[in-house]
Design a protein that fits this description.
mainly alpha
C-alpha cells in the first residue's frame, strides 16, 4: 500500500517538475514528504534498504508523471492555460501557512521568531521576482543539434536545474527555459515513442545531469535545514511567494469562462494544499479511516 501511495506522490512531483514556474520541491512540501525525500537521498548509504523502499516508488511515480502526462500537460496548457496555472497558484498559497509555522520554530521546537529570518526571505523573494522578468525560451525554439558541446551543455544545464528543482518555490523547468533547453527536453520526453533514438540521445546527458544535481542539491539543503532551519524555511517561503509572479505571467487573469473556472481551480488547489499541509486535519482523516 505504501508503494502505491509513494508512487502517486512521485507522480504528482514529476508532473509539477515539467511545468515552468511550478516547483517539484513545493509539491513535496505540500505532500509532507520533503524532509523524508532529502534524508533518503543524503543517507542512502547509511540507511540503504529504507531509503530504497521510499525512493524507488517515488522515482517510478515521477517517471510515470513525466512521461505519462507530458502530452496531457501540453494539451491543458495550450487549451486551458488559465485554469491550469491558477490551480498551481492555489497549491502554493495553500502551502504558505505550513511553511510559516516552520519559520516560527527554533531547532529545539520552541515557537520564537528570528528577526534575522527576514533577510533571506527578502533576498530570495527578490531573486524570484527578478527571474520572472527574464526573457525565457520561446516555445517555438528549435531543438539543439546533437553534438559534444551541446551534450555537455545539456548535462550541466540539467544538473543546475535539478539542484534548483528540489528547492521549494524554484522551478527546474523555468531554469531550463532560461538556459534555452526546455523545449528540447520536453519535446524529447513527449515524442520519445515517435523518435526513440534521437530522444534517448538528448535525455541521456540530461538524465545524468539531473542525478548529479539531485545528489549535490540534497546535500546542500540538508546542511542548511540542520544548521539554520528558521532562516532556510524563511528563504523557502520567499522563493515560493516570489514564484507566484512567474506562474501568473504565464496566464494573466481574464474575466471570461476560463477565468471563472480558474477561480474555482485556484480554490481547489488551495484546499488540497491546506489539507495536505495541516497535520490536525490529516490526523482526523487517518482516525476516520481506522474506525
Amino acid at each position: 500500500m505504501k508503494f502505491i501511495i509513494y508512487a502517486i506522490y512521485g507522480c504528482i512531483i514529476g508532473v509539477a517538475n515539467i511545468i515552468p514556474g511550478v516547483s517539484g520541491g513545493t509539491m513535496a512540501v505540500i505532500l509532507n514528504i520533503y524532509d523524508k525525500l532529502i534524508d533518503s537521498v543524503i543517507n542512502i548509504k547509511k540507511h540503504f534498504k529504507d531509503s530504497l523502499l521510499f525512493l524507488i516508488p517515488v522515482a517510478v511515480g515521477g517517471a510515470l508523471g513525466i512521461f505519462g502526462f507530458a502530452k496531457l500537460l501540453e494539451y491543458l496548457l495550450q487549451h486551458f492555460p488559465m485554469p491550469t496555472f491558477f490551480f498551481f497558484i492555489g497549491l502554493i498559497l495553500g502551502t504558505v501557512p505550513m511553511i510559516f509555522k516552520k519559520v516560527m520554530l527554533t531547532k529545539d521546537g520552541q515557537k520564537k521568531f528570528n528577526i534575522y529570518s527576514i533577510i533571506p526571505f527578502i533576498i530570495f523573494f527578490g531573486i524570484m521576482i527578478a527571474l520572472s522578468f527574464f526573457n525565457t525560451e520561446n516555445s517555438s525554439t528549435a531543438q539543439i543539434q546533437l553534438d559534444l558541446i551541446n551534450w555537455i551543455y545539456l548535462f550541466f544545464g540539467s544538473a543546475l536545474a535539478a539542484m534548483c528543482m528540489i528547492i521549494p518555490g524554484v522551478s527546474g523547468s523555468m531554469i531550463l527555459m532560461i538556459l534555452g533547453l526546455y523545449t528540447t527536453v520536453l519535446g524529447s520526453v513527449s515524442h520519445i515513442a515517435d523518435d526513440f533514438i534521437h530522444s534517448a540521445m538528448i535525455l541521456l546527458p540530461a538524465g545524468l545531469g539531473i542525478i548529479l544535481g539531485l545528489l549535490a542539491g540534497a546535500k546542500l539543503i540538508d546542511i542548511c535545514l540542520k544548521k539554520f532551519p528558521q532562516m532556510t524555511f524563511a528563504a523557502i517561503l520567499g522563493l515560493m511567494l516570489g514564484s507566484l509572479l512567474s506562474i501568473y505571467n504565464n496566464s494573466a487573469f481574464q474575466f471570461n469562462i476560463q477565468g471563472v473556472i480558474a477561480l474555482f481551480t485556484l480554490l481547489l488547489g488551495f484546499a488540497v494544499a491546506f489539507v495536505f499541509g495541516n497535520d490536525s486535519i490529516k490526523e482526523k482523516l487517518t482516525k476516520k479511516r481506522q474506525n
